[in-house]
Amino acid sequence: MSIKEIVYAALFAAIVGVLGMIPAIPLGFIPVPITAQTLGVMLAGCFLGKKTGLLSMALFIILVALGLPILSGGRGGVAVFAGPSAGYILSWPIAAFLIGYAVEKVWSKASIWKISIINTIFGVLLVSLIGAPVMAIMTNTSIWIGLIGAISFFPGDILKAIIAAFIAYQLKPISLIEEKHQNS
Prior knowledge:
The protein has 184 residues and is mostly helical. The protein has a single domain (3-178), classed as Arp2/3 complex 21 kDa subunit ARPC3, CATH 1.10.1760. It is 68% helix and 0% strand.
């Protein structure tokens, strides 16, 4: 792993932390709020690729576990991983890896809509399919109710998927994925 990849991984972990400073939107009927942080997860996968995207989100989770208040609402510490948001947060490295993997596969023919679809599948649906059941278990609710409640995230998350795709596509010439394609 190059110094550049390490720096980018740290940078994107920091970006997700900064996105946590944007106030969360509580929904009232589900204990997990809407946050801007999944935008950063999608950007990490789109811009960094599978390996560095995974590393950036793993670093973010380690920083949260160490107690840094970088989750929305200034949350941090290991107790976060025993709460209703745990599954969503723990899905982020997986999502970044799979987004990166898929974007790397379509890179030479990438378009905003292709990247948006990849972000929607792995950054919206996958995160919800992991996060909602864990939320349901943590709140002693049925998994089915948790999955239905997670649908409330879809409009905003799909918008974030499109925004991430647009940004990644505009930054395509300077992304790590582009660099890897040029070197191979």
